[in-house]
Amino acid sequence: MKKFALIKGWGLLWCLLIKTIYLLHSPTYAYPIHTTTLQIQQQPITGTVTDATNVPILGVNIIIKGKTKGTTTDIDGKYQLQAQPTDMLVFSYLGYQLVEEPLNGRTVINVQLQEDTTMLQQVVINAGYYTTTERERTGSISRITAKDIEKQPVSNPLASLQGRVAGVEIEQTSGLAGSNFNIKIRGRNSIRTAGNDPLYVIDGVPYSSSSLGERQASIILPGGSGVSPLNNINPSDIENIEILKDADATAIYGSRGANGVVLITTKKGKYGDTKVEFNILSGLGTVSNALDLLNTSEYLAMRREAFANDGIDPLPSYAYDINGTWEENRETDWQKTLYGKTSYLTNVQGSVSGGSGQTRFLVSGNYHKQTGVFPGNYHNDKISALANLSHRSKNDRLSLQLSTNYTSNQNNLPSDGLFVSKAISLAPNAPELYNDDGSLNWEGSTWANPLASLKKTYESNATTLVANARLGYNILENLKLTTNLGYTENHLKELRTDPSTAFDPAYGIGPGSSTAVHNTGQNISWIVEPQLHFNYDMGKTKMEALVGLSFQEQKSSQRSQFAFGFTSNSLIENLSAASNIFPLSDLQEQYRYQAAFGRINLNHKGKYLLNITGRRDGSSRFGTDKRFANFGAVGVAWIFSEETLIDQTFPFLSFGKLRGSYGTTGNDQIGDYQYLDTYSFGTAQYQNILGLYPTRLFNPDFSWETNRKLEFSLELGFVQDRIFISVNHYRNRSSNQLVGIPLPGTTGFSSINANLDATVENTGWELELNTVNIKTKDLEWISSFNLTIPKNKLLEFPDLEGSTYANQLVIGESLNIRKVYRLNGVNPQTGLYEFEDFNNDGIITSPDDKQVVKNFDPKYFGGFSNSIRYKKFSMDILLQFSKQLNWNFWYNGPPIVGSMSNQPSIVLQHWQEEGDIEPFQQFTTGANQEGVQAFRNYTESDAAISDASYLRLKTLSLAYQLYEKGTNGWGCQLFLRGQNLWTYTNYTGLDPETGNQTIPPLRFITMGTRLTF
Length: 1013
Prior knowledge:
The protein has 1013 residues and is mainly β. It has a 22-stranded antiparallel barrel. Strands 10-15-16-13-14 form a 5-stranded mixed β-sheet.
């Protein structure tokens, strides 16, 4: 509470100090000039009309209330008319709230219109190569704005999408800073796990989501995939994120749109006076959950019972925890000790923006720092800068837009990937961490001090540059030529060290045994896309057409080296100090891509819509005979609420639309050179020369995966859209799967990369409900609910039983399944686990008896958000939920119950004597081989899978607008925000989303202030 009061006090002090300076210099506080006469006569009234983001609005109607006299705004939002000092002006514009302004003698009236939330279908949507409106779109496009993103203290843009978008499943892999997010848009299409990422486009520039990390270097991060490249995109710089899902929306991206498209648009400058904004945020984060483990007395009882069950007496010398070597009255919460440290978050964002009639600009900078939850000085530092410039000529024929985004990201973590499991398994009476002199305590070499693992470090230094230029020229009134130019450059440098100081000094291990992994990688890409846009108005029918070309090249390189045998641990970061260096990888890859694309859109009477898109792609990733392919889609929509009969019959229906789409998109996420003969270096030498051996066979017919997408949708708006419902049903079928096809052993190869006539189907329902519950001048309450019910199924797989996927996949089941043993409980006589013997051979073996299929896909997921505003107070709440299964604590080979390892407290419900019926078998130290085998089978059975459904308070944001910029010339907002505040779940493990092997998502509470001038 003291910290909250201190931060709140600082915020108020800043606001009051700035307000005082403003008042001292404001001309409105000069001595007033009094007049003695009042002349009621016509006088010129001028002003500017802008939207909530200070963008001028063209065509706003301005009339004098009670009179017919009025005018409209020009392209700069300016207006002028004659009125009397006692008149009242009325400002109206479609999609915005009506504003009435009394003159009261004023001659300059500037108005800021607020978007009418009851006119949802008028919102402008970015569809990639063109824009449309929510009303007229024929494709499935979801959108979140800066208003939603800025209320969440997140460092990765994907985190801001969780629970907010129907059909988009986003899973956080770890609570560690820089970790990846797994994203699936309408399910998993490819049998290959690495072929399901969407296409990311930032300001028109494709952005690679593939990490440059090396598995042996970034072992601490789940999957060893390194820091997520999307972690280098500053969420505070994002204006909108659009997600394209169906064929109509994604087919224009051709071979890269099979898994959906994520469009990220950064903030741009606005017309009007120069605006300065500072956003300062700080907060505290902690691990959101901990396991309920045995306390010392329970643990010691478990150990003694295990030795008694195994018939071991007296206690052996290695039983340090119970034979008197360690103190039996000590109790340490190792979870709190080893990853219970408070994480501190600081985020400072500053921007300057503005513009005249022809030029707009925005320059912003951001500093983000988050410390770790481990002991020691671990932190993630990011510095980013964004510059945007837009210009148009006075005659509006020439336009230019430049955008540059640069980020530097430094991250350091302990490199021991088993650090979390060590904290869970340590005996609660294990020795103290430090000796009296401050050195690490090894307790006579009776244990491995966990803090020694912190001497193993992981460091990464990543930089990202995204630059974009967009040129436009109006050749004719309805014909425009544009060219999109983009350049991206990603660099990553990783270092993982494993010094000899991480081992017990008693072993005498020196720096000659120290190791290090060095990895450097870079990815450079450019793209050029000339386009022609044509519009034609035929009266009742309007046509929009687009044709364009795309040329892209990407070069990637990576070099990873393993070094050991150092002369000194102080030189472990220097490769030249190592006596032995082995290459892990040395890659140089080039990817070239070209395409021609087009679109025709017909709008008849504003209610019959037809959209046709097509693209022909060529990719260097495919065989010489299959390098080019065609993709296309058609989307149709009928706004039936515009029909006279519907309008008269259902007056409460403000909007109604039926739409559908069908088309094909492709998938080329297979890596480079996969169709070619490839060779690798061997390890043996012949006459001091390393030999080569073939690793892949040439396949000229290697081609695209193809995804055929079908969708139907119904959208309904009631009572001026205060209730807006959208229901989508989709069916995607992905075929021509890129997998390894088995070959006879006589060929010398186990498989060949080829297209298999396997088909994967994703079907599902998406429901979105937006309601304006209360809307008055002082009180507003808006709700949003989304629900997705997905289903993934493998329809076909020729000769599945003879393939390498025989033990992983089942026809008619999801791709995301696991085959496991079936647990039949604990035998009341033997006290050991029993399992279903499916082949009746008397023994439990894999894969014959792994016949139970468990589906890890969520049965449904979604989110429920509420936004409430009362005068100057506002509150936003987001609840995220998912119905799913996940591996629990017993998965991935945990120590057997009864060994020198702590366990969840639920193991106390165990078998102790003949006739007991309990969920857990008898304790054993590991000497009972039958018990050990039964426990191994247990960890590979359905007992290791449990319900991981959850309901999470994802975001809570409270804000108070201390001053409004429009009335004071400056603005000050104070806010308090929380992330991952509460989770309801029955999951047996650390977290139902991230699992049990890594740090759960952190619970953050932050506070800050936003200042605008």
